[in-house]
Write a structure and sequence with these properties.
By secondary structure, this protein is mainly beta. The protein is built from 1 helix and 8 strands. Helices cover 12% and strands 55% of the residues.
């Protein structure tokens, strides 16, 4: 069996290294309902887009992954079990950041934000 030319192996190695370094910056977000009652109409707005979920039971989590386009604060709004609307602003997000963001809905209706984000570009 004939060996491939060294130049072909070098090109293949270059392509592998070049494509292995290419990746997009994503934020993996988890919303956790730490309250004793169901929350509904949950909407999260982040720079350039939004996502949501209809309801989260007590102790339940919702996972979502997104890419930041632009910069600005992240916000959440939801309704508690009595139908009262709650809104909270979180940390500023910047394009090119990646990592995790934990959003905790507490019993008082308050929100705790736990960002673990780094800039990759």
């Amino acid at each position: 069996m004939k060996k491939p030319p060294a130049a072909a192996l070098l090109i293949l190695l270059f392509c592998f290294v070049a494509f292995a370094g290419c990746r997009s910056a994503f934020v993996s977000t988890t919303i956790t309902n730490n309250s004793a009652a169901q929350v509904t109409l949950i909407e999260v707005n982040y720079p350039s887009a939004s996502f949501g979920v209809g309801a989260l039971a007590p102790g339940a989590q919702y996972h979502y992954r997104f890419k930041i386009q632009g910069g600005g604060p992240i916000r959440i709004q939801f309704a508690d079990a009595s139908g009262k609307a709650h809104t909270a602003s979180g940390p500023d997000l910047q394009q090119g950041e990646q990592g995790t963001l934990q959003i905790n809905i507490e019993s008082s209706g308050s929100i705790s934000w736990i960002p673990n984000l780094t800039q990759i570009r």
